[in-house]
Specification:
The structure is a single chain. The chain is α/β, with parallel strands linked by helices. It has helices spanning 2-14, 16-46, 122-125, 135-142, 158-165, 168-172, 188-194, 197-202, 224-227, 229-237, 242-250, 262-282, 299-305, 327-330, 345-358; strands at residues 54-56, 62-65, 69-72, 77-84, 87-95, 114-119, 146-150, 178-185, 208-212, 218-223, 286-292, 312-315. The strands form four sheets. The protein has a five-stranded parallel sheet with strand order 7-6-8-11-12, sandwiched between helices. It has a three-stranded antiparallel sheet with strand order 1-4-5, with no helix packed on it. Strand 9 (208-212) and strand 10 (218-223) form a beta hairpin. Helix 4 (135-142) crosses helix 15 (345-358).
């Protein structure tokens, strides 16, 4: 014992700077932990019913995927409950099939005449609504010649849409020889494609990283963690701290404002065109549609960039303009970034009706 104490004293005497550095690091850690605890406690005390961070159990049906970054667990069921400040915002039951597609309420035919494959994010998946209330299910109701498949998933971006269509096996498994593929565009897909700080911080998995060559060919470069490992690490882990967000807000007038560059819109257009070409090569009797979802403010800029000889575009951006219903009847308050988040069932039904009126019936 005396020998060990002696060794410790010798180490302190010989390496006083090491001890000072260790104590400094400990004090810095305690200071940061105290400030983080202060901000968290203040947020908790100030939160009123229906306000504050949203809490959900959705992660129970999510699993990692080597190609898409993540996917829904095959053959799984979940009753998602999303709360905010102790108030339940919505509760909805989801059923996924063996290929991670959400169940649609369509006639189940062994060999349907036409298939409508829906791709996209939570708007396609139908976050917050029942299986029968999603846009693909409502499309079946208003356009019964099609059997709809819902391959969208919460958190997906244009990257996953391209990766799905670039997979010949995925397309070969479609149950009919003819049909349509519908990609639903929302503005935030450009943030996901760019890999903005909010995306790097908010997603539990590093999203796929795509780039376009000069000839328009799209390359899958890995994911955003591969693109810039240090930046990804800082935002992925530090960005979730309340102290980090406090400093970011205070420096908002000093730091450059985040925006979507025109190069990202151009990249999105090239990806959409490449996806349409791949679909035509593998399934020539399918047509590719891009649906600009209501209130997608950047849809007009994307539409100007896309070659409409390759892609059909259904513009629904102004579909809700003049609608007499209140915002609360049409949208959930479930977003961390903006006041109104995911659509409610009436919006999906309205869009599905518009699709049925403008997309040719199955012949």
């Amino acid at each position: 014992m005396k020998k060990k104490v002696g060794l410790m004293r010798h180490a302190v005497q010989c390496h006083p700077n090491v001890l000072a550095l260790a104590l400094g690091c400990l004090l810095a850690f305690l200071l940061l932990a105290g400030m983080e605890g202060f901000f968290r406690a203040r947020l908790w005390l100030r939160a009123a019913p229906g306000e504050g961070p949203a809490k959900s159990n959705f992660s129970r049906i999510v699993e990692p995927d080597s190609r898409l970054a993540f996917r829904g667990k095959p053959s799984s069921t979940l009753i998602e409950t999303l709360t905010r400040g102790g108030k339940t915002i919505y509760q909805a039951e989801y059923h996924l099939d063996a290929e991670s597609r959400r169940r649609t309420w369509c006639p189940e035919e062994d060999a349907p005449a036409c298939t409508a494959l829906f791709l996209g994010c939570s708007v396609t998946f139908g976050t917050g609504v029942l299986d029968e209330e999603t846009m693909p299910s409502r499309f079946c109701l208003h356009q019964p010649g099609y059997q709809a498949l819902n391959a969208g998933f919460t958190g997906y971006g244009l990257q996953q849409v391209w990766l799905q269509l670039a997979n010949p096996d995925f397309l070969q498994r479609l149950p009919s020889e003819r049909g349509i593929v519908v990609y639903t565009f929302i503005d935030d897909h450009l943030n996901r494609l760019e890999g903005t700080p909010a995306v790097l911080t908010g997603w539990n998995y590093a999203l796929p990283w795509l780039e376009a060559e000069e000839d328009g060919r799209i390359l899958h470069q890995g994911n955003f963690a591969n693109r810039d490992p240090l930046r990804y690490f800082l935002y992925r882990h530090g960005g979730r701290m309340h102290l980090f967000r406090f400093l970011e807000r205070r420096l908002s007038g000093v730091l450059p404002t985040s925006y979507i560059p025109t190069t990202t819109i151009t990249l999105a257009a090239r990806i959409i065109e490449d996806a349409a070409r791949r679909l035509e090569e593998i399934r020539p009797d399918f047509r590719f549609w891009v649906l600009l979802f209501p209130e997608a403010a950047l849809g007009a800029a994307l539409k100007m960039e896309v070659d409409e000889t390759l892609v059909n575009i259904l513009d629904c951006q102004d579909l809700l303009r003049g609608d007499a219903r209140s915002r609360d009847e049409l949208w959930y308050k479930d977003s961390a970034a903006v006041e109104w988040g995911h659509p409610k069932a009436p919006v999906y039904d309205l869009v599905a009706r518009h699709m049925a009126e403008n997309i040719p019936a199955c012949q």
